[in-house]
Amino acid sequence: MINGGHVILYSRDAEADRAFFRDVLGYPHVDAGGGWLIFKTPPGELAVHPADGPPAHEFYLMCDDLAETMAELSERGVEFSEPPSDRGWGLLTSIELPGGGRLGLYEPRHPVAHSLPDGR
C-alpha cells in the first residue's frame, strides 16, 4: 500500500536550495541521476485546512525549541524572513531559501501526530 510521501519544492535556483538542504541542514539524500538530489526528511504530518480561495499546499519544518533551532541555524548562515510569532497553536518563523523561497519553521504547541504508531 502507500509507504511514504514525496514533497516537491519549486525553486528559482534549485541547485542552491539542494545545496542548502544537503550542506546546511545536513539531510541525507540520494542522487536520482545528474545531481538531482532527493532528501530524506524528518517524520511528517499531514493537515487539511479549509480554503476560501483556490486550493494550495504548504510545507513546514517542525522543531522542539524554536529559539534554540534558530540560534543553531543562524550559526550556519541561515536567514529568517520574520521574527518568531506566537500563533497560539505554536511559535512560527520562516527560513529564507537561497532560491528565493520561504520555508515555514515552527515549534508546535498542539498534539503532534508524527510519532503515532502506524495502523488504522
TrEMBL record:
The GO terms describing molecular function are: dioxygenase activity
Q: Keywords in alphabetical order, please.
A: Dioxygenase, Oxidoreductase
Pfam families the record matches: Glyoxalase (PF00903)
Ranges for domain VOC come to: 3-108
> What is the designated name of this protein?
Glyoxalase/Bleomycin resistance protein/Dioxygenase superfamily protein
The species this protein belongs to is: Actinoplanes regularis
Q: What is the lineage of its organism?
A: Bacteria, Bacillati, Actinomycetota, Actinomycetes, Micromonosporales
